[in-house]
Model the fold of this input.
Amino acid sequence: MNQAVWAKRIHAQMEYEWQRKEPPKDFPALAPIPTGRYSDPAFHALEREHIWKKTWLLVGRDEDFGGPGHFRTFDRTVSPLLLVRGHDEVLRAFFNTCQHRGAPVVRDACGAAKRLRCQYHSWTYDLDGTLVAVPDRRDFTDLDESKRGLKPVRCEVYDGWVFVNEDPAAPPLREWLGPVAEEWSALGGAGLRAHGSRIERVHANWKICVDAFLETYHVRTIHPASVSKLLDHRGAAMGLFENGHSRMVTPKWEEAIERERNHVMPLPVIPGLDPIFSDTNAAYSVFPNLITPLDTIGFPFIRFWPIDEQTTDAEWTFYGPADETPRVQQAWEKYLQVFDVVMNEDFMNLAPMQRSVASGALESIPLNYQERRIYHLHEEIDRVIGPEKIDPQLRVKPCLEPFWEKNQSI
Ligand code: FES
Ligand SMILES: [Fe+2]
Done:
């Protein structure tokens, strides 16, 4: 990607957004979102079956997984998964399910092993999933070991970002990420490391959580002493992409840019970034559950994992340039604490909102032009599930495709 050309286009878009007096003339009125989508167990079951089992999901960075024999379980979605680095250095994913009677092949969340030995009757698998040993083999008749290897799950890596997908028919990760992959390449994944993470349980549907990170309409009210001092939400420039992904670049106030210029941040910056990344907050949403608000020093990757239709685990990990010096590590710890304040502000309304939608006190949600990324997410949810499977009362009417970035002349 030519960053300078891209930055010029985004600057023009921010200027347009800042100047406009109303939504663009051809922009459609968005039909209110039925709130049953956030509380209906049947809708939640459709999501489990069609979204979480058929979408690329970020599990971490390649270097988090260690060398040959290192493994990690991944239990955030419907199925128990296991990622393990092979003797050939390839990172593979499998169901953490022994092909004898289904016991977990590994019990520890992470570890290292030369081979994977099931804890129940010691069936043993090579790191590439091949079944290599069965105790009391003589007592099995008709056992075909070649058909009893660990069941593989798609695992692909883009610029060090590791994704898994249970759907063998899913498009390749790079193709599915589309423009997001191209724009992320500016970050130089190989030079980044995790600098701390958090997990918080939120008593709200996962979409209530994700929606909260798809607009800056709330910034003045919810973040008066934090984000509002940094960002001018009226200039937020949004891009809607294929496959439900989107981008929002929100300009910083001139005073905030000046303040940051005069304050020497103790954290190293990602090299080679266009100045637009220091003058704005560029946040990506990768369908269905990943939000990445970027800054030059690094960024949190925020993911939302559904527990049930009214409970979500929010998990965020900060990535920045690799630097393990104590001074930088301490600065990251402070930075995470500042971010905790912002996240608490964002989370404050979510559980009460869930109670509202579940109570029937709010039948539908009217979205404005600034909130169009939320509508875009919900359109994609229906596309992935298949609208014909969804209760007609709970569907959203697709209307935003003409506004996908590839279909716009901006
Ligand atoms: S369930 Fe794994 S060896 Fe029996
Ligand atoms: Fe917020």
